[in-house]
């Protein structure tokens, strides 16, 4: 079974010899391959929809790891017991939903060693939430696939100082690594804020304050882009 670059990158962050739960598992690729490859001794595949969960179970059976991968129908972390897994994987869900699901299961989160999160949107919200619950980001990956840039976050428990606003946008480890896709990410963020600025400028209401705030974001991001290019 060949994983997409996005899922393969998320799987590479799974800590060896730890148990995982893949929330919104879809086809069950991550928990199945984690067990097949001996990364995880056992795993849980969770989905809220019966159809995707049935597809996941079929793949798990085909790979011969049904004895090690439990398929569960449920919403988020509600079908997991405290201490059952060491890490949680969220791939392909919205960032706001991921934060909501985590906030609804504090008893589960308190027993976890790590989170692997690949949000489809609202990534800065996820990063901020991680620091608000006294976790921090230890690793990050950027993956470009099918004309889309994906951000993958690896977070662990432990209080750290809050980040600067631009770090929630770019990612603290992404900035430290200075990888080849960082410029693409910064450019995308600049364009996003320029679109927001243009919309505010067309507003029938006085949006002077909001325009200044958005412009401040653009200025900081353009400075980071310049610094990145200088280092290259």
Order of helices and strands: HEHEHEEHHEHEEHHHH
How would you describe the oligomerization state of the chains in this entry? single chain
CATH class of the largest domain: Alpha Beta
The averaged pLDDT comes out at 96
Instruction: Kindly estimate the percentage of residues that lie in beta strands according to DSSP.
Output: 15-25%
Low-confidence spans? none
Count of folded domains: 2
Give the CATH architecture of the largest domain.
3-Layer(aba) Sandwich
Q: Describe the biggest sheet?
A: 7 strands, mixed
Question: How many β-strand stretches?
Answer: 7
Q: What would you give as the CATH superfamily of the largest domain?
A: Vaccinia Virus protein VP39
Could you explain how this protein is built, in words?
The protein is α/β, with parallel strands linked by helices and 232 residues long. It has two domains: 5-161, 3-Layer(aba) Sandwich (Rossmann fold), CATH 3.40.50.150; 182-231. Helices cover 46% and strands 21% of the residues. It contains ten helices and seven strands. Strand 6 (135-145) and strand 7 form a beta hairpin. Helix 4 runs parallel beside helix 6 (123-132) and helix 9 (182-201) runs antiparallel to helix 10. The longest helix is centred in the last third of the chain and has 24 residues, at 208-231. It is elongated. The mean pLDDT is 96.
Protein traits:
single chain, about 230 residues, alpha/beta, Rossmann fold, 7-stranded mixed sheet, 10 helices
Quickly describe the structure:
The protein is an alpha/beta fold and 232 residues long. Helix content is 46%, strand content 21%. The chain is built from ten helices and seven strands.
């Amino acid at each position: 079974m060949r994983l997409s670059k996005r899922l393969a990158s998320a799987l590479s962050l799974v800590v060896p010899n730890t148990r995982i739960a893949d929330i919104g598992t879809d086809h069950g690729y991550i928990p199945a391959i984690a067990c097949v490859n001996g990364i995880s001794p056992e795993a849980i595949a969770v989905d809220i929809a019966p159809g995707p969960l049935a597809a996941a179970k079929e793949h798990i059976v085909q790979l011969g790891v049904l004895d090690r991968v439990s398929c569960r129908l449920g919403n988020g972390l509600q079908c997991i017991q405290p201490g059952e897994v060491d890490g949680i994987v969220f791939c392909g869900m919205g960032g706001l939903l991921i934060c909501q699901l985590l906030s609804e299961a504090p008893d589960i989160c308190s027993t976890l060693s790590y989170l692997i999160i690949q949000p489809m949107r609202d990534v800065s919200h996820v990063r901020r939430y991680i620091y608000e619950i006294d976790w921090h980001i230890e690793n990050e990956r950027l993956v470009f696939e099918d004309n889309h840039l994906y951000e993958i976050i690896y977070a662990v428990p432990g209080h750290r100082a809050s980040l600067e606003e631009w770090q929630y946008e770019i990612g603290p480890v992404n900035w430290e690594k200075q990888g080849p896709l960082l410029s693409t990410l910064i450019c995308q963020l600049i364009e996003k804020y320029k679109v927001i600025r243009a919309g505010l400028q067309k507003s029938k209401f006085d949006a002077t304050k909001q325009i200044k705030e958005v412009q401040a974001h653009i200025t900081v991001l353009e400075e980071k882009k310049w610094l990145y290019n200088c280092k290259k």
